[in-house]
């Protein structure tokens, strides 16, 4: 059957696996992921490509410095990159590595074709070369005469003289300018397009596209002492990965027809020239259509300036995910940096965004609403009495959806999120204005009762719609909101068109109140409190599309026997002062009574615990938590929706062994 769905092909840059990636790289990838998720959710036939750019002198030297072959070296880093994407829940459809045969072979074919048709020729080359950028610079571009430094990396450039192959960029300059002018959307944002246009107008020189000074690259097929310039190699990934010229005879794989030309190449502004000049010219020379859009976003900076692997001041996103969870990080990156411009990263700002937008605005709206449905409507979402509806949230929702879609169409992720928060914040205000607790005082049959039903319905509906609109951005929260509202099925599998219409919550839906969506983080105390919580159940490193599963290390029965598990009866429990997550428990294990401090205060009241028979690790070294001794650890199961203590199925005397 013909697939007439709209198509969407989006790519990220392929990253250099010279060192682990940082929060800046994660930004590009999370943004591309949100766009891919949005298009999939809309039912478009979507392809999301990312990968790694593994050749070049920089990698060759880096590997040598740690006594590894380049391939061994990159294999290790790439595995780490894939783990990072998995932690950030990047839903890529394919991950291309430029060392894969499917890529190398086709790059050679491309080079050969361009040579055969005279667009690549051999000549002598001399110039200043920066290993960091893998690029030549002209005399005027290298800065700080007479020290000769790279304008980007601030590191010394090298004088390189070699016989090389050249690509006729100059020949296509006019055609490229005409294309840019005829397609104002091709290079975005507009300020960057203007830079590119004036650069081309200064005149393009032919590009040196081969190297003989190192070997870690794809050999020129007809002259193997040369390797192909790493940018020609790298840029080609966007077509090799979807099966361009699969057999060397011009026959393409099935993805090619579906997805070329790409809809968006999402890249950082530093690599815009490669994507807006070299890449389109390569495609023109190959007689292929150009990508529809190249979007150069701004950088994520630190207060102290640019973050870079070279400068060693990078922020590790894996640590942040472990500390704050995946959704706060994704939200922060996508909300905080104005799209297209630079933004400054700080942990304080991340915590603030989480506390204000996620915990306060969104989280409280959910807990207040579900609490009121519980209290004033017996836990069931009332039907909407049309006569008593004010239409305030419904009308706003219509505007918000339109604003959201328009923002996403222009890749403006922060404003799409801002649109959702207009609804969230208006709904919070609506609670204060309508004061449902007063409406609930009206006697049965009074019109106040109908008004209450309308208010509650509108609030639930605003939350349902927010969950829907959040699907592209957050990976856990929409499902949690959905579950607490008691809605059927999975929000992610909803039909987008129907789901964004008003009135999707069926009357009579039984809400299922749960844990707060986002506990507030105290930046200073946060780490201490988090450290004393029961260890959360490890979440398998899951990627919806393609990334590797986490590897589980197996232990022997002897390893397990080292852990002494015993049944304990809780004799008393009390809160720990100034630690809102901790409870101090006295537990009995047979004859012995022990004190255990545990981070379960947000899940159990002290009174509800007394008399419970739980399972504890009895041979754990005692530790002090907030200065209070804790001799053991209790077992609890937890996930994003909450925490439950492990208890015994039938009564059994305390102190009994568990194995
Ligand atoms: N390998 C090339 C890209 C080849 S694409 C055919 C490359 N790799 S990179 O690892 O150095 O950078 C990849 C991307 O990360 C670039 O888009 C770059 O702009 C982006 N970023 C690197 N540091 C960044 C920030 N601090 N902030 C935002 N993006 C950042 O270039």
Description:
The protein is an alpha/beta fold and 659 residues long. Among the domains are: 347-529, Isoleucyl-tRNA Synthetase, Domain 1; 563-658, OB fold (Dihydrolipoamide Acetyltransferase, E2P) (Beta Barrel). It is 40% helix and 18% strand. The protein contains 22 helices and 24 strands. The strands form seven sheets. It has a six-stranded parallel beta sheet with strand order 3-2-1-11-12-7, with helices on both faces. Strands 15, 16, 17, 18, 21 and 24 form a six-stranded antiparallel beta sheet that branches. Helix 10 links the parallel strand 11 and strand 12 (294-297). Helix 14 runs parallel beside helix 17. The two termini are 56 Å apart. Mean pLDDT is 89; it is low at 526-552. The site of 5'-O-[(L-methionyl)-sulphamoyl]adenosine has 18 residues, from strand 1, helix 1, helix 7 and strand 11.
């Amino acid at each position: 059957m013909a697939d007439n769905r709209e198509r969407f092909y989006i790519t990220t840059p392929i990253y250099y696996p010279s060192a682990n990636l940082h929060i800046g790289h994660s930004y590009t990838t999370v943004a591309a992921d949100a766009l891919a998720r949005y298009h999939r959710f809309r039912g478009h036939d979507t392809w999301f490509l990312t990968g790694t750019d593994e050749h070049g002198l920089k990698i060759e030297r880096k590997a040598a410095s740690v006594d590894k072959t380049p391939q061994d070296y990159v294999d290790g880093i790439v595995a780490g990159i894939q783990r990072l994407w998995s932690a950030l829940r990047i839903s890529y459809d394919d991950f291309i590595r430029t060392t894969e045969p499917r890529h190398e072979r086709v790059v050679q074919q491309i080079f050969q074709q361009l040579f055969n048709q005279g667009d690549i020729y051999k000549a002598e080359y001399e110039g200043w070369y920066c290993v960091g950028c893998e690029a030549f610079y002209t005399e005027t571009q290298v800065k700080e005469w007479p020290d000769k430094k790279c304008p980007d990396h601030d590191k010394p450039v090298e004088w390189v003289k070699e016989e090389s192959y050249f690509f006729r960029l100059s020949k296509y300059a006019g055609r490229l300018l005409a294309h840019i002018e005829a397609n104002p959307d091709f290079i975005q944002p507009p300020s960057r397009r203007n830079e590119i246009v004036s650069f081309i107008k200064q005149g393009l020189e032919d590009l040196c596209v081969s190297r003989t000074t190192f070997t870690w690259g794809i050999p020129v097929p007809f002259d193997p002492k040369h390797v192909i310039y790493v940018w020609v190699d790298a840029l080609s990934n966007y077509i090799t990965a979807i099966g361009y010229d699969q057999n060397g005879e011009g026959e393409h794989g099935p993805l090619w027809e579906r997805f070329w030309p790409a809809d968006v190449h999402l890249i950082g502004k530093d690599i815009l020239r490669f994507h807006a000049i070299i890449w389109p010219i390569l495609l023109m020379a190959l007689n292929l259509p150009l990508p529809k859009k190249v979007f150069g976003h701004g950088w994520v900076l630190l207060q102290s300036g640019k973050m870079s692997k070279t400068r060693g001041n990078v922020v590790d996103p894996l640590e942040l995910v472990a500390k704050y969870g995946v959704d706060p990080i994704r939200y922060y990156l996508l909300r905080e940096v104005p799209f297209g411009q630079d933004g400054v990263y700080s942990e304080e700002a991340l915590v603030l965004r989480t506390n204000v937008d996620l915990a306060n605005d969104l989280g409280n709206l959910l807990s207040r609403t579900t609490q009121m449905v519980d209290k004033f409507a017996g836990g069931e979402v009332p039907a909407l009495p049309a006569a008593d509806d004010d239409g305030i949230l419904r009308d706003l929702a219509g505007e918000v959806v339109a604003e959201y879609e328009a923002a996403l169409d222009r890749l403006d992720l922060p404003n799409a999120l801002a649109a959702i928060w207009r609804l969230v914040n208006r709904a919070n205000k609506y609670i204060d204005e309508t004061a449902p607790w007063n409406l609930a005082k009206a006697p049965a049959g009074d019109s106040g009762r109908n008004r209450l039903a309308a208010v509650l319905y509108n609030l639930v509906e605003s939350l349902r719609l927010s969950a829907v609109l959040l699907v592209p951005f957050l990976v856990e929260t929409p499902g949690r909101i959905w579950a607490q509202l008691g809605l059927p099925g999975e929000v992610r599998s909803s039909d987008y068109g129907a789901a964004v219409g008003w009135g999707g919550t069926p009357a009579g839906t039984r809400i299922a109140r749960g844990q707060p969506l986002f506990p507030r983080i105290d930046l200073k105390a946060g780490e201490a409190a988090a450290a004393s919580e029961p260890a959360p159940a490890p979440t398998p490193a899951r990627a919806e599309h393609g990334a590797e599963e986490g590897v589980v290390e197996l232990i022997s029965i002897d390893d397990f026997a080292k852990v002494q598990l015993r049944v304990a009866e809780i004799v008393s429990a009390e809160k720990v002062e100034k630690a809102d997550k901790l409870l101090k428990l006295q537990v009995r294990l047979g004859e012995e009574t022990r004190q255990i401090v545990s981070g379960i205060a947000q899940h159990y009241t002290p009174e509800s615990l007394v008399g419970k028979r739980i399972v504890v690790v009895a041979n754990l070294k005692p530790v002090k938590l907030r200065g209070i001794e804790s001799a053991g650890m209790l077992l609890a199961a937890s996930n994003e929706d909450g925490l439950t203590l492990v208890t015994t199925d039938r009564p059994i005397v305390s102190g009994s062994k568990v194995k």
